[in-house]
Amino acid sequence: MDRVxxxxxxxxxxxxxxxxxxxxxxxxxxxxxxxxxxxxxxxxLGVAEVVGVSSCTAALFLSLTALGIGPGDEVVTTPLTFIAxxxxxxxxxxxxxxxxxxxxxxxxxxxxxxxxxxxxxxxxIPVHLYGAMADVESLAALCESRGLALVEDAAHAVExxxxxxxxxxxxxxxxxxxxxxxxxxxxEGGAVATDDVALAARLRRLRLHGMSRSAADRYTGSYQHxxxxxxxxxxxxxxxxxxxxxxxxxxxxxxxxxREEISRMYEExxxxxxxxxxxRLPLDAVSARHLFTIWVDPERRDAVLAGLQxxxxxxAVNYRPVHRLTWYxxxxxLGPGNxxxxxxxxxxxxxxxxxxxxxxxxxxxxxxSVRSVVSRARG
Length: 379
Ligand SMILES: *Cc1c(COP(=O)(O)O)cnc(C)c1O
Description:
The protein is of the alpha/beta class. The chain contains 13 helices and eleven strands. It has a seven-stranded mixed beta sheet, sandwiched between helices. It has a two-stranded antiparallel ribbon with strand order 6-9. Strands 10-11 form a two-stranded antiparallel ribbon.
C-alpha cells in the first residue's frame, strides 16, 4: 500500500474549468461569482446573509469588530482550537478568556462559560470541533440573558447540525474557512453567516477598506464616486475563489456522506480496541465529520504518531491547547494545569486521514496500522 496522505483535496477538472472561465472573463476579484456563492451558502445554511472574506481568521476578526468588540472587552472561548480563534480576539484588542472543555466531547462547556462571564465579557466563541457542534442552544440562551454576542467558529462545520440548528442560525455570526484542508476549499478563503442584515452590511464594508461601493458596483453601471465611511480592512473573497467553491456546494452532501461512511468504518475498526478511545458525539448532532480523531495513552502518543507515519499513514494533532503555546503562556500567565480536560485531550489526540477520496482499502490500511502500532506501543 502506498502512502495514505493525511489530506487530499477533492477538486476536479470541471472545477478547474469553472476557474478558467473566470480567468477568461474580465472580473477577477469580488464580483458576480462571489455574490452567487454567498447566496448559495446562505441557502444551504438557512441564514439571511453570507459575506465572503479572505479567511476564517478574518471572518472572526471582522465579526467581533463589527459587533463593536475591542480594547477592555473580554471574549470567552475554548483553548482546544486552532490559534486563529484566540488570535482574532487579540487582534481586535480584546482579551481571550479561556474555559475548559467537556472531557468526553472536547466541546466548550456551557456551565464553565456561564461561570467565566463577568462585567467585561462581550462575546462567546464556541468552536464546533471536528464538525460536532457545541451546545449552541444553551450558549445562545446564556448570551441572550447576559447581553453577549455568540460568534461561532464554524471552520469545521459547513455540514453540521445540532438540535435542528446550523451554524449562524442561532448566534450573531458564524465564521467559516475555505483553507486548503477544509471540507469546502479554495486554498484560502472564508465567510461569515448571519441572520442580521445590518451586521452583514457592516461586514461588507469592513472587508473592503470601509468603502461605500465595491469594485463590482463601480464596474456594473456607470462610474460613480465612492466614499470611505469608516476605517476598514482588506479581507474580501475573490471571484477566483468563489468559482472554485461554487461547484463544490453541489457535492457537499455526497462528500459528507462518504466521510460519514469512512468515520463509521473507523468506529467499527476501533470498537473495543484497548488503548484507543474516541470522542463522544452529542446525541442531537449531525457531525460534519471534518476530522476523525482517536485518543491514545498520553505517554505513548508521540510513539504512535511516529509508528503511523512509518506505516505510511499521514497524521496530525488537533490540537495542543492554545494556552500552552509560548506566546499565550507568557502573555497571559497561563500554563499546564489551567484547563485539565483540554490538556488531557491535547496530550492524547491523533487525527487520522478523512476525506471523500479515501478508498476502502486505504481506510482498512489505516485501521490495521492503528491496531498494530497501538498494541506494539502498549508493549
Ligand atoms: C482552519 C481553522 C481556522 C482558521 O481558518 P483560516 O481560514 O485559515 O483563517 C479557525 N478555526 C479553526 C477551528 C480552524 O480549524
